[in-house]
Write a structure and sequence with these properties.
The complex is a heterodimer of chains A (250) and B (500). Chain A has 250 residues and is of the alpha/beta class. Chain A has a domain at 2-105 and 178-247: Rossmann fold (3-Layer(aba) Sandwich). Helix content of chain A is 32%, strand content 14%. Chain B contains 15 helices and 17 strands. The chains are: A alpha/beta (250), B alpha+beta (500).
Chain lengths: 250, 500
């Protein structure tokens, strides 16, 4: 099972869910480049200027681990990254679990994504107010002598903190992506886990996913917010287990 | 002494910050008076199932769900998150909040306690800081990529920053240079005093600019133009010094090359003047020294012929007769050569000269010859005034006229002198005759010195230098001389005097 975290934080988001699957499966967890403990020097703004950069990384991971018939679990934008990877290299994957997915966040005609374009611009602006203690935010620019505040322990926000420039870029890439046309191209069984009350991936979007994926099950989870694997881990585990037993051998 | 007792209730409700308690899903269960006062909400309005995240602006809502909530869930604590709180009748309030997740003994989340600070002024300050930082980053990028070496040093001379231009000019990478005293890095021993000398000006806040020499990492010296700009915080409180160094070796090299070429030119000129003087001396002594023995030969041959002709037989007498003639001819050649050599060197006395008057003067001198030969000279239009050397112009006309008259075998000889409008508005003079003409293949030859196309005695003799001198005069004036000729019909010589 390969777990891909979504926009905002890192692989630690899965820690309430992964113990349930550790006995039966080999687990692969990773941080997207630019997030968590990933090597920030590997962040190439051109490569990661679109989701394809992340798709490429995922495929490289699959090749490195020689995955075959893996179960991909992706949250938020990583759900789409997984879908794109499974379209491009189907042999790696057996099925996909999509947690709070959305193929497009911006309203477009009849399509309800949930946001207007300027909401995204405001978000990127908003990010300037919240560096979560990112050290270079305090470094004098010209002198080149960073004065690092002493950050230690779990109170350091490290799970969700990253270089503010990267955070903005990733935010832009995530919320301005439009992969609606890719959905019908996927030929794998999928589970769409939809939160009851998710502003970022609202129920209408989940329903849209369900309609346009070839072989999808839509499960509503009674959870507020966008991260059921954190706020409702039991329900999340249950839904995934049921999906896996249903699709095993396919 | 009175004690002022504060109840927990008072402390809570009227705290200098807002207090908010919510269920894990965000439902507000408790809120203090300060919060209500800041936002304008009523307690009833908030406690009817409203969730905290609904009070946030859209971007805040996204951030709440992607960052705040996961952090709180994973850490149990979140500090200093900035949000904007929507308000019923006012614009959103910028806030900063801290949250604590309260769990039961089993670890199940029970409650979220949040403290809220009004961050209006602070948000404004942060925005300005961010803007200033962006501008600084922009400038820093310009500095970094500049071709000039730009560095900053502390008042003690320790390098604080070192741009790419400095890396290239001095060979030290930034990591090697920062933190080092710049004196030891790039200042050669004989220039170490400069910094101390400049220091007074630096403290006074006065920028300095000077030329000097610095040293590359590999030891070679680099000529540089240096600009120092002090940064003063308070009067006489020197914080740092910006140093811009520009490689002046290219400019220096160009200057040196210029000086070298100038010196070379001066030397050559001196050389030339020397040679001219030598030539002068040569010509003078040649004419003087050659003429002396020549005169003796003439004298003695004349004497021989007059007094001793009787002692010689017929053939001997013929030879005796030829001697003085030949030596006279030699003297004539020598004089012409001298004249020609002097002509090339003397300064032109340029002035407006009435060419008609000049012509008349020459014709005056030719009167006898004209009568002897029966030649006529006609001038259809009066000649204009031209900028020229009057003596040389006269000689030029004389040479062309005498040639025109000499090389003519017609019964009725005539010469016509006039001018036509030439190219570039240059006046083109012509001297036309109905003489014997010159065949095309010999037309270049005739300008060669001492070249005559005829036997020595034919057509009135002459040394064959007339046209050479004419060409020399024309060219000294920056002009051109050429001809058109048809054998047996006649010849026209054209010339311009460049200086109009």
């Amino acid at each position: 099972m390969i777990f891909a975290h979504g926009y905002g934080c890192d692989q630690n988001m899965w820690r309430l869910v992964t113990p349930a699957f550790a006995p039966a499966y080999q687990l692969v967890l990773f941080d997207l480049v630019g997030n968590g403990a990933s090597d920030l020097t590997a962040y190439d703004p051109v490569k990661y200027g679109s989701l394809q950069g992340y798709v490429q990384d995922l495929l490289e991971l699959c090749a490195a681990f020689e995955l075959r018939n893996a179960i991909f679990v992706g949250h938020s934008v990583s759900a789409m990254i997984g879908i794109l990877a499974a379209i491009q290299a189907p042999d790696y994957f057996a099925s996909l679990v999509l947690v709070g997915p959305s193929p497009c966040y911006i309203n477009d005609g009849d399509y309800v994504g949930g946001f207007a374009r300027n909401d995204i611009d405001e978000l990127l602006d908003f990010l300037d107010n919240n560096y979560l203690g990112w050290a270079t935010a305090l470094a004098p620019v010209i002198m080149g002598n960073p004065e690092r505040p002493d950050l230690a322990g779990e109170l350091s926000n490290s799970f969700c903190r990253t270089d503010p420039t990267i955070a903005k870029r990733f935010g832009r890439v995530t919320f301005l992506s439009d992969n609606r046309a890719d959905l019908p191209l996927l030929r794998k069984p999928t589970l769409t886990l939809q939160c009851q009350d998710d502003v970022i991936a609202p129920v209408v979007v989940g329903e849209y996913m369900h309609r346009h994926l070839a072989d999808d099950r839509l499960v509503l989870i009674d959870a507020t917010g966008h991260c059921p694997h954190l706020s409702a881990p039991v329900a999340t585990i249950g839904a995934i287990q049921e999906f896996l037993s249903e699709t095993v051998g396919q | 002494m009175t004690f002022f007792t504060e109840t927990a209730e008072e402390l809570y409700e009227n705290a200098p910050c807002g207090y908010l308690s919510t269920l894990p899903n965000g439902t507000i269960v408790r809120v203090n008076q300060t919060f209500l006062a800041w936002t304008g909400y009523t307690r009833a309005g908030l406690l009817g199932g409203k969730r905290f995240q609904e009070l946030l602006t859209t971007p805040g809502r996204i951030y709440h769900d992607t960052h705040y909530a996961p952090l709180l869930q994973m850490q149990g604590v979140v500090n200093e998150i900035a949000f904007d709180l929507r308000r019923p009748t006012q614009p959103p309030l910028p806030i900063l909040l801290n949250s604590r997740l309260v769990k039961d003994d089993a670890g199940t989340p029970l409650l979220i306690r949040t403290t809220i600070f009004n961050a209006t002024a602070r948000r404004q300050y942060e925005r300005e800081l961010l803007l200033a930082r962006r501008q600084a980053e922009h400038l820093a990028a310009i500095v970094q990529s500049s071709v000039d070496a730009i560095l900053s040093v502390t008042p003690d001379g320790v390098v604080q920053s070192w741009n790419r231009g400095a890396e290239q000019l001095f060979g030290y990478r930034a990591a090697e240079a920062v933190g080092q005293p710049f004196q030891s890095l790039i200042v050669p021993p004989d220039r170490q005093h400069e910094f101390a000398q400049m220091f007074g000006a630096m403290v006074a806040g006065q920028p300095m600019h000077f030329e000097s020499v610095r040293r590359h990492k590999d030891g070679r010296l680099v000529a540089v133009s240096i600009s120092l700009t002090p940064h003063i915080e308070a009067p006489h409180e020197l914080v740092s010094i910006s140093v811009i160094l520009r490689d002046s070796s290219a400019a220096k090299r160009a200057e040196q090359e210029l000086r070298r070429q100038s010196a070379e030119l001066t030397a050559r000129n001196r050389d030339l003047a020397l040679r001219n003087a030598e030539l002068d001396a040569f010509v003078y002594s040649a004419s003087h020294d050659l003429k002396e023995p020549l005169r003796s030969i003439e004298y003695y041959s004349q004497f021989l012929y007059e007094d001793y002709a009787g002692h010689f037989d017929g053939e001997g007498r013929l030879m005796l007769q030829a001697l003085p003639q030949m030596s006279a001819h030699l003297r004539h050649l020598l004089d012409t050569l001298l004249h020609y050599a002097r002509l090339g060197r003397q300064a032109l006395d340029l002035q407006p000269v009435d060419a008609q008057q000049a012509l008349d003067r020459q014709l005056q001198m030719l009167q006898i010859r004209l009568r002897e030969t029966g030649a006529t000279v006609r001038v259809p239009h009066p000649l204009p005034t031209v900028q020229s050397d009057p003596i040389l112009l006269g000689e030029l006309l004389m040479n062309l006229l005498t040639n025109a008259i000499k090389y003519n075998d017609k019964a009725e000889k005539w010469v016509e002198v006039g001018c036509v409008a030439g190219q570039d508005d240059k006046v083109t003079f012509y001297v036309r005759d109905n003489g014997i003409g010159i065949s095309p293949e010999r037309q270049d030859e005739i300008f060669q010195i001492f070249r005559r196309l005829h036997e020595r005695g034919a057509y009135g003799g002459g040394v064959g230098a007339g046209l050479t001198i004419a060409q020399q005069i024309v060219e000294r004036h920056g002009g051109r001389i050429w001809l058109e000729s048809t054998p047996t019909v006649g010849t026209t010589f054209y010339f311009t005097l460049g200086v109009l």
